[in-house]
Amino acid sequence: MRIKKSWQRIAIVLAALFALYVLLGFFAVPPILKSQLKKRLYASTNRPVTLGKVLFNPFVLSLTLRDFRIEGKSGGEFVGWEELYINFQASSLFRFSWTFDEIRWIKPGIYIERLTAEEFNFSDLLPASDEAGRQPEKAGDEDAEIVPVSIGKLILDQGKFQFRD
């Protein structure tokens, strides 16, 4: 009888943990991720960032980012898209590679503008170079490992690239 009760307790704990995983995945991850993406992208680019909707499915490990935009220096759009859907495979954790079943990018846009003869609307995002034009090495670059990436299906729908001189 004691063994049966301990298995029931284990089952209840496992069911509660699963329910917590599902609730956190569907309801806590999207607002946290949205907030952190906007905050960190603004901090690294010093440009306004908008992000419409963030969806996360903890069952299939998929992420959807809708209505994303980073403004350019002159106020127009610099980078944006209507929807980015990423379906990550949990098997990646055991293969030591990043494996994606599908990546779907709908209406991505990149807008490049030449501001002066040597400056573009993204020049402030590049690391400063020395007089010879060499980029400084970052600490730890020599030890960085390249992680293999596998993408089952890549869909790019209605992409747009604009260049203004």
Query: What distance lies between the first and last C-alpha atoms, to the nearest angstrom?
Result: 80 Å
pLDDT average, as an integer?
Answer: 89
Shape assignment: elongated
Q: Beta-strand percentage? A: 35-45%
Using brief descriptors, characterize the structure shown.
single chain; 165 residues; alpha+beta; eight-stranded mixed beta sheet; 2 helices; 39% strand; elongated
What does this structure look like?
- This protein is of the alpha+beta class.
- The chain has two helices and eight strands.
- The longest helix has 44 residues.
Task: Quickly describe the structure.
Helix content is 29%, strand content 39%. By secondary structure, the protein is an alpha+beta fold.
Task: Please describe the topology of this protein.
Layout: H1 2-45, E1 49-57, E2 62-71, E3 77-88, H2 92-95, E4 98-106, E5 109-116, E6 119-120, E7 149-157, E8 160-164
Parallel strand pairs: 4-7, 5-8
Antiparallel strand pairs: 1-2, 2-3, 3-4, 3-5, 5-6
